Amino acid sequence: MSDIWTPAKVGNIETKNRLAMAPMTRSRAQADGTPGPLAAKYYAQRAGVGLIISEGAQPSEDGQGYLATPGIYTDAHVQGWRGVTSAVHAAGSRIVIQLMHAGRTSHPDNTPHHRQAVAPSAVAPGAPIFTATGMQPIPEPRALTVEEIEQTVNDFRKAARRAIEAGADGVEIHGASGYLIQQFFAPNANLRTDAYGGGIENRARFAIEVARAVAEEIGAERTGIRLSPGATLGGLDEGAEGPDLYRYLVRELNKLGLAFVHIMHFGNEALLADIRRLWDQALILNRPDRALENVGSDVKSGLADLEAYGQFVLSTPDFVERLKIGAAMNVPDRGSFYGGSPDGAGYIDYPTLSEMAGAK
After folding, report:
1. Which domains, from first to last, does the chain contain?
2. Partners of residue 225 on adjacent β-strands
3. Is 179 one of the catalytic residues?
């Protein structure tokens, strides 16, 4: 039995406790995709957790989905992220950069090249997306060719290397939340009839190829992947075979010896138990609806090695300290989750307990 205050080993990353900051898009990067000037302070403020998983960073121009999200494929990106990783390390925590390709969840107005989005198949999600001119319908994407799939795998590989150059302790491959990798899993988004479509082995192929390429490039001990079994985000429907696809996928990923799998859990407890049984390395669990009084329960039961938290950590930089003494958390301001003013309102101005006491 472990509790959340004991150290953990995640691949070759040693964490001071078993709490992680979940990845959260904040849309505050500069126009060229370099992390914004306040990003280092934002992440360092939250370094009480043992492991920070950064917001998604696109591995290429094609990978961008939303406005003002950071990249990790140019020298400027590396330099910007280096400031973030250095600040987090100085504050006593570890950080992995999430590699996120949005696939069809994109709009030409949001990308630097203004081209049509790419996806497994030419199927639009039937949902809107925010752009500089307001909400617009997401256009139909273009189906990737096999050669372009190979190039996209290579984009992930190169982005992982750039993340390590930027000082990250590792990377998390984003295979969840309705983005490109999960789009390959879902039969309603993946209509392919080649080696990347059809049966569950084919629909899982792209994810496995990306994970293998990244692990070869930077080491399996620095490579993790995030999955969200059953998630319908982005209009996806994984169908009746969904649970079996994840069982197959986790078995295959486990053979690679990755540092961790990060599960965004939506309620299939039997599948979660199977994933735990099939996975030999660290398992990070994010239950989006977990109540504060249940923090630590999955680590204590052995179901998870770390627990990840999003809005609690976003709104409460001293989340760990408050958790230890049972203090109330700050109330998150949903209106400032994305974008924001240059002064960092809703980003770096959430107060700690000590700051609140000093203001009295």
Report:
1. 8-358 (3.20.20.70)
2. 173, 261
3. yes
